[in-house]
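Weekly modeling sync, notes
Attendees: S.R. (lead), two postdocs, one rotation student

Agenda item 3: backlog of single-chain predictions. S.R. asked that every request posted to the team notebook include the full sequence so nobody has to chase files. The rotation student volunteered to paste the first one in as an example of the format we agreed on. Action items at the bottom.

Example entry:
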Amino acid sequence: MTQASGLGVDLGQLSEPEHVQYPTFDGRQIPALFYPASGARGGAPCVVIVHGGPEGQYRPTFQAVAQYLASAGFAVLAPNVRGSTGYGRAYLHLDDVRKRMDSVADLAHAAYWLRDSGRADPERIAVYGGSYGGFMVLSALTTYPELWAAGVDLVGIANFVTFLEHTGPWRRHLREAEYGSLEYDREFLEEISPINSVERIRAPLLVIHGANDPRVPIGEAEQMVARLKALGRTVEFLRLEDEGHQIAKLANKLVAYPLAVDFLKRHLLRD
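Predicted structure, as returned to the notebook:
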């Protein structure tokens, strides 16, 4: 056992997360962590951050991105939407295949709760996520475009068909149990793919993707960015030539994360 030093961080400056729950469309309560913005009291701009997986869970451990956003002046809501681990097997499977969009509805109700509770400025709510969370960002922007002031998509799935066609064979077998198969569910996968509703996106979007990603190939980002540019939408793209599915290198972290925060500041902290 050891006692971590904190690496020089003033722990008193960190945002203390609050365990909250908010109601969603079917009467369930969605658990989440709410991080107040540093120095702000209600009505702040807010970023809803979505975990990947989708079998993941936000817990009140140190969350670097959440703390970075809070220190930059944003409130942060980290929901464990249906499909998250830690709440029983039934909850885990509530987003499987044909129930996929129910988890996106949980994000919409996060925005409604932030608005109705006064915890965030309803005109300045953004959505941020990576990998499967990146799909959730794109899907939220296309399905509920009126709710979001900006989006940040890191290595996200834009098109379930091309994702399953080009991801590694081992990964395809694993993911088809969760998302559905090309053989039996192609039409449904096309229907829910954000790329096929891209014209509905209103909010500015930042896309960050590693060129060597074996899980979610770079083509997912490229097709989304190309379509948005063709439509004249506001989109920015950071292609990391020496990264895969994670932003692993410190030099790239020092580019990507400040870029994301700067992007959100430009679109949410504007006068």
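Discussion: group reviewed the output briefly. The mean pLDDT is 93.
Action items: rotation student to repeat for the remaining queue; S.R. to check formatting next week.
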